[in-house]
Amino acid sequence: MNLLTAQAPGRVPRSGKGLALGIWRFMLVALVLALSIGFTQVAVAQADPDREMTTAAPGITAEQWRQVRSGETGPNYRDSRFDSNYSLINSSGETWREIRNRWVSPFGLIAVFGMAALIALFYFIVGRKELEAPRTGRLLLRWTLMKRALHWTVATLFIILALTGMTLLFGKFVFRPLFGDGIWAWMIAATKVLHNYLGPIFGILLVILLVSLIKENIPKKHDWVWFKKGGGMIGKKHVDAGFANGGEKAWYWILATVGILVIASGFVLDFPNFNQSRDTMQWANIIHAVGALGLTAISLGHIYIGTLGTEGALEGMTTGYVDETWAKEHHNLWYDEVKDQTLSEEEVAARKSSGGSSEPSATRTS
Amino acid sequence: MAQMKFMCDAERCIECNGCVTACKNANDVEWGIQRRRVVTLNDGEANEMSISVACMHCDDAPCMAVCPTDCFYKTDDGIVLHDKDLCIGCGYCLYACPFGAPQFPQQDAFGERGKMDKCTFCAGGPAESKEEEYEKYGSNRIAEGKLPLCAEMCSTKALLAGDAQDVADIFRQRVVHRGHKDGAWSNNPQASADNLAYDAAHKG
Ligand code: HEM
Ligand code: SF4
Ligand code: SF4
């Protein structure tokens, strides 16, 4: 339009040629007018959100939201981070957080401290299980030096792992306010290093221990009766037991199942160099924490029975030898098999000074 | 008090990675770590869209909730920062974070990852001196009254940073002018509860 009006002044049509030019000029103006009306109409249309919605490039569709939530990446997914294998949104992260913080953490604490409270209650009400008959002074070899060493190494590592593991889960609520950041920083760093380096050693040793004890821990019919009679823990009921009683076998099989699960998940957590996905780590962490806290709770029972709870049990695992009376009362079927192998205290002392590890084992499979 | 937020307008982001580079430059980030990344969905298809992602400085931050050392804290401006002296590199924050923001200089056997690093909203972190702060966390532009460099440098102004209310206002205005009812972030069934963009689009 401006172009045309700029041309117009001072130009007057003079001839037929001029007339033709005038018609051309009119048509041009009409065309421009028509076009500009068209343009205006487009502009009006642009202001209408509903029409715009139908013509614009689509926004994010429900399908894309589904894609993002499910974490699937697909062949046309790009991430500019050089080694990233992450989806856009890690939607399982919040689930993991909820499971860990809302369920595993409080209920784990309840399991461990609840167990400790129950045991304390049991001790005060029922008390220690003493030997009924006097000791004979004749001893039986129960644990060879090799097995004792293995047991105490595994036990020590277990306690360290349980304490450091629980510090990872609960330490921030207790030690940070208690000690302040300086000590807490040092403490939690040491905790992680201990846990992550001792864990695999524990794992390997526990497997060796389990293999070396499997013969004594095959379940038998009398173990079932042992359980039905409550292991003879309360009162003076007589219960049959071989080298390992029903309760010990149960602890063995808990370690052989849950323990292996804890070790396996621990290895997954401990070796991120294999590029496990975040989801794998989340599952491994939940399995690991639930299993480990369960084991910790149950281990308190094992520790109680092996020390405070039963007269004469601890000496078996420290010296290797148990009294004949103890064997008769707690493991009668084993006693029946090995009663001809009793030794006097002097004989035991002599054996030990001549190198204890070559002792013939008095353990049997029953 | 301000509540600092990022927001990326997916209708504007052209996947130029300027924000990624700006961040690297502003914070002198360690080799191998990239605090910001650009994700493109359906690259080359009609519904292609890109978005720049880093730590979103969550209100109820999952990283904070799961950290065994409790090394995260929130500044008065709602920025989520962490103390590298306390971090043990366990990786939990990464497992929990919705945006894959926490990163580690290494990823070795026995869970050896080094200290976690993530976007600080250009607000530095806890340190004795300015030099130490820069060394550990990068620049503290917030202390200088500036916004994060990634958003400042964004060529299309797709990436916005600032107080949640201001960001929402800008985005709402855009949405209105665009004529799109839902703006860039439409059709999210979850949005009404927690999505800034969705709220922005619907308040206007
Ligand atoms: C092979 C054996 C084990 C390995 C390799 C292992 C490894 C790990 C790893 C890598 C973590 C993550 C923490 C971090 O990276 O800083 C962890 C956490 C933990 N571990 Fe173990 N562990 C083992 C055995 C045990 C045992 C025997 C217990 C307890 C009796 C235990 C209790 C825990 C607990 C409670 C946590 C914390 C879970 C949480 O914070 O959510 N672990 N373990
Ligand atoms: S690191 Fe992840 S979880 Fe933590 S505030 Fe940033 S975006 Fe949220
Ligand atoms: S890696 Fe560091 S910041 Fe992340 S959860 Fe572990 S200790 Fe906390």
TrEMBL record, chain A:
<feature type="transmembrane region" description="Helical">
    <location>
        <begin position="23"/>
        <end position="44"/>
    </location>
</feature>
<keyword id="KW-0349">Heme</keyword>
<feature type="transmembrane region" description="Helical">
    <location>
        <begin position="196"/>
        <end position="214"/>
    </location>
</feature>
<keyword id="KW-0560">Oxidoreductase</keyword>
<dbReference type="GO" id="GO:0008863">
    <property type="term" value="F:formate dehydrogenase (NAD+) activity"/>
</dbReference>
<feature type="transmembrane region" description="Helical">
    <location>
        <begin position="107"/>
        <end position="126"/>
    </location>
</feature>
<feature type="domain" description="Cytochrome b561 bacterial/Ni-hydrogenase">
    <location>
        <begin position="142"/>
        <end position="320"/>
    </location>
</feature>
<keyword id="KW-0813">Transport</keyword>
<feature type="transmembrane region" description="Helical">
    <location>
        <begin position="250"/>
        <end position="271"/>
    </location>
</feature>
<dbReference type="InterPro" id="IPR011577">
    <property type="entry name" value="Cyt_b561_bac/Ni-Hgenase"/>
</dbReference>
<dbReference type="InterPro" id="IPR016174">
    <property type="entry name" value="Di-haem_cyt_TM"/>
</dbReference>
<feature type="compositionally biased region" description="Polar residues">
    <location>
        <begin position="354"/>
        <end position="366"/>
    </location>
</feature>
<keyword id="KW-0408">Iron</keyword>
<keyword id="KW-0249">Electron transport</keyword>
<keyword id="KW-1133">Transmembrane helix</keyword>
<keyword id="KW-0472">Membrane</keyword>
<comment type="similarity">
    <text>Belongs to the formate dehydrogenase gamma subunit family.</text>
</comment>
<feature type="region of interest" description="Disordered">
    <location>
        <begin position="345"/>
        <end position="366"/>
    </location>
</feature>
<dbReference type="InterPro" id="IPR006471">
    <property type="entry name" value="Formate_DH_gsu"/>
</dbReference>
<feature type="transmembrane region" description="Helical">
    <location>
        <begin position="283"/>
        <end position="305"/>
    </location>
</feature>
<dbReference type="InterPro" id="IPR051817">
    <property type="entry name" value="FDH_cytochrome_b556_subunit"/>
</dbReference>
<keyword id="KW-1003">Cell membrane</keyword>
TrEMBL record, chain B:
<feature type="domain" description="4Fe-4S ferredoxin-type">
    <location>
        <begin position="78"/>
        <end position="107"/>
    </location>
</feature>
<dbReference type="InterPro" id="IPR017896">
    <property type="entry name" value="4Fe4S_Fe-S-bd"/>
</dbReference>
<keyword id="KW-0004">4Fe-4S</keyword>
<keyword id="KW-0249">Electron transport</keyword>
<dbReference type="InterPro" id="IPR050954">
    <property type="entry name" value="ET_IronSulfur_Cluster-Binding"/>
</dbReference>
<protein>
    <submittedName>
        <fullName>Formate dehydrogenase FDH3 subunit beta</fullName>
    </submittedName>
</protein>
<feature type="domain" description="4Fe-4S ferredoxin-type">
    <location>
        <begin position="4"/>
        <end position="32"/>
    </location>
</feature>
<dbReference type="Pfam" id="PF13247">
    <property type="entry name" value="Fer4_11"/>
</dbReference>
<keyword id="KW-0408">Iron</keyword>
<feature type="domain" description="4Fe-4S ferredoxin-type">
    <location>
        <begin position="47"/>
        <end position="77"/>
    </location>
</feature>
<keyword id="KW-0411">Iron-sulfur</keyword>
<keyword id="KW-0813">Transport</keyword>
<keyword id="KW-0479">Metal-binding</keyword>
<dbReference type="InterPro" id="IPR017900">
    <property type="entry name" value="4Fe4S_Fe_S_CS"/>
</dbReference>
<dbReference type="InterPro" id="IPR000813">
    <property type="entry name" value="7Fe_ferredoxin"/>
</dbReference>
